[in-house]
Design goal:
By secondary structure, the protein is an alpha/beta fold. It has helices spanning about 55-60, 65-75, 95-105, 120-125, 135-145, 160-165, 185-190, 200-215, 230-240; strands at about 1-5, 20-25, 45-50, 85, 110-115, 130, 150-155, 170-175, 190-195, 220-225, 245-250.
Amino acid sequence: DAAGEIAELGEGVDGFAAGDAVFTYCRRETLHWGGYAEYLPMDARHVAPIPQTVSVMQAAAIPLAALTAWQALVDHARLERGQNVLIHAGAGGVGSFAIPIAKHCGATVLTTASAANADYVRSLGADIVIDYRAQDWVAAAKRHCPQGVDAVLECLGGQVPVQSLDVIRMGGVIVCLNEPVEEAAAAARGVRRHRLFVTPDGEDLREIARLIDAGTLPVPPIQVLPLAEAARAMELSKAGHIRGKLVLAVRESA
């Protein structure tokens, strides 16, 4: 993820001007050295103006998590009004965007979260919160949706993808951010499965920005650290259980 001001435009680039505040998702094949830098050369197709209602710092925390949730639920799960979706880890970076995106699509949202995060995910729009530490989440999901959910967004890995097959209706879909369930196992349950590789997409970011400015998508809380503390930020990230996102400030005035 990165956000900042356009320093210079490449030849033939339209729709942007030097000084515009923009945000983007940087993948290795599109940006070899990553985003821990003062200047980033980016393909204009992968860049969008930041939402008008957020700061550059807040915008830097949006692209990857929001694009992941958007492409998983809108492009792959094709979530529709009246459907049910189970979103794992609703208080996480992806889940915090996935819940309101699913509500925007008109779905009923079940999510797994700890008791400490229950109020937070409800504030995002979750209809049913399953405390995975206090109960069997598979049994709880079946109890709330005996017919099975229409879609699952799986971002935890381990045994969770396979276990998730037990709560999906025939003809439903599971979108995995890590290793997907085996195709044969999903097919035996009549479930479609997708492994999501997030794609940098400026048009998707423009739609996400529009929803943020409309108040439909809340922006996650951020913790800002100076670029010099990048190693500490990585350690905090690896430790997990961070609500919101970590942002590195390249300059003190950023």
